[in-house]
């Protein structure tokens, strides 16, 4: 095949996903998305990556942002976000999903201080040296060998991120009445996520009317209560799949009607299918 024909090959959606148990079960993704759109969702871990090709737009902290090739995207744990293409050729990125425990440990190693929560105030970071370091690290982590090299590169990248761009954010201790109501609704869903929860169930726990709770919940989280519940179910299903449970059982145990119901939302939120995640 000559150079001209290669240049005109259509870009296709593709994903490569893997998990590294030796690093607090950190997940990694190398993906090209064109038509896929991430619905608003959150993770219980960080989402850190560099854009290799083109650009995309995403919702984060109450606003839409555009990120371009060479820039870094950082989503803190628990933050609502989305993602979708701007044009017909989509985007390609390399993502790492480290857990809070590992990031705290690295923050302690590089500063000698205990961190409540390493937090990155900017969702889009312009730092070309760091972006290149993330790319090199991610590419090296595709090779399952050379543990010592992996240990070094991971610490190089995350320590550079923490020293240059993080702040130590204390965990919130007090909540106002409405924020407390949202917290109570979240706590109820965390326990009863597999049930057919109603808005009245949540409002009785939160001490607000159903109408008021729905408005406050969306204003506080950026998601409607049912969207938050779906995200919670997907996260619980993810844990079950990671333990080796069959997809159909994970679906029924987390409140989805069947395997296809879980698969639809799993792909919208995580960008891969339950089958890919289970490999």
Automatic annotation (TrEMBL):
GO MF annotation list: DNA-binding transcription factor activity; sequence-specific DNA binding
Q: Name one Pfam family in it.
A: HTH_18
Top-rank taxon:
Bacteria
Kindly list any coiled-coil regions of this protein.
none
Task: Give the record's keywords alphabetically.
Answer: Activator, DNA-binding, Transcription, Transcription regulation
Q: Which residues form the HTH araC/xylS-type domain?
A: 183-279
* Gene3D superfamilies on file: Homeodomain-like
User: Per its record, how is this protein called by name?
Assistant: AraC family transcriptional regulator
**Originating species:** Phototrophicus methaneseepsis
**What is the taxonomic lineage of the source species?**
Bacteria, Bacillati, Chloroflexota, Candidatus Thermofontia, Phototrophicales
């Amino acid at each position: 095949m000559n150079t001209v024909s290669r240049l005109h090959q259509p870009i296709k959606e593709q994903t490569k996903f893997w998990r590294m148990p030796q690093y607090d079960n950190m997940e990694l993704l190398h993906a090209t998305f064109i038509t896929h759109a991430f619905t608003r969702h959150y993770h219980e871990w960080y989402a850190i990556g560099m854009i290799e090709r083109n650009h995309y737009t995403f919702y984060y902290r109450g606003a839409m942002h555009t990120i371009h090739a060479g820039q870094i995207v950082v989503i803190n744990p628990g933050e609502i976000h989305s993602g979708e293409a701007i044009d017909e050729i989509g985007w390609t990125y390399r993502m790492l999903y480290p857990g809070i425990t590992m990031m705290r440990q690295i923050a302690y190693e590089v500063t000698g201080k205990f961190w409540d929560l390493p937090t990155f105030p900017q969702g889009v970071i312009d730092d070309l040296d760091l972006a290149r370091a993330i790319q090199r690290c991610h590419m090296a982590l595709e090779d399952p060998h050379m543990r010592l090299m992996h240990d070094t590169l991971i610490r190089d990248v995350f320590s550079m991120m923490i020293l240059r761009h993080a702040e130590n954010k204390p965990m919130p201790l007090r909540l106002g009445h409405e924020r407390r109501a949202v917290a109570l609704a979240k706590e109820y869903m965390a326990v009863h996520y597999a049930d057919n929860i109603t808005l009245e169930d949540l409002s009785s726990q939160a001490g607000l009317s159903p109408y008021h709770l729905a408005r406050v919940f969306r204003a506080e989280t950026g998601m409607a209560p049912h969207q938050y519940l779906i995200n919670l179910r997907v996260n619980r299903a993810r844990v079950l799949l990671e333990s080796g449970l069959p997809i159909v059982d994970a679906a029924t145990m987390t409140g989805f009607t069947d395997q296809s119901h879980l698969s639809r939302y799993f792909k919208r939120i995580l960008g891969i299918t339950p089958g890919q995640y289970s490999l």
